[in-house]
Design goal:
The radius of gyration is 14 Å and the shape is globular. It starts with 6 loop residues before the first helix and ends in a 6-residue tail after the last helix. The longest helix is centred in the first third of the chain and has 12 residues. The chain is built from four helices and four strands; from the N terminus they run H-E-H-E-E-H-E-H. A four-stranded parallel β-sheet has the order 3-2-1-4. The chain has a single domain, classed as Dihydrofolate Reductase, subunit A (3-Layer(aba) Sandwich). Strand 1, helix 2 and strand 2 form a beta-alpha-beta unit. By secondary structure, it is α/β, with parallel strands linked by helices. Helix content is about 35%, strand content about 20%.
Length: about 100
């Protein structure tokens, strides 16, 4: 996928991506995106799910499937990201995380 944006927008996007340490996604988004072809937009990617897809569980997989809920996923993503940012980009997880006070905006 290629985004066409202004040079100013491209600079902002590049700056944000440079500070991205991990991503948290829901299983529905994971499925709709067809697992991003194995190249998630936030890697490592933590996928909140009730059912782990066995075809994506292997050494070196860019996905960690979290069955313990969003709090566990956020905690694991923060550890993986270190001092970098964690992105949460799903329609259902983002408001849940905000309402639970799990995110700093």
């Amino acid at each position: 996928m290629v985004l066409k944006v202004s040079p100013q927008s491209a600079a902002v996007i590049q700056e944000r991506l440079a500070n991205l340490g991990a991503g948290v996604w829901g299983r529905r988004t994971f499925d709709i995106a067809h697992a991003w072809g194995g190249h998630p937009p936030g890697s490592p990617a933590f996928i909140v799910t009730h059912h782990v897809p066995p075809e994506w569980v292997y050494a070196g997989s860019p996905f960690t499937f979290v069955t313990g809920g969003m709090e566990s996923a956020i905690r694991q993503a923060r550890l993986a990201a270190g001092d970098k940012d964690v992105v949460v980009c799903t329609a259902s997880l983002l408001p849940q995380c905000l309402n639970a006070g799990l995110l700093n905006c």
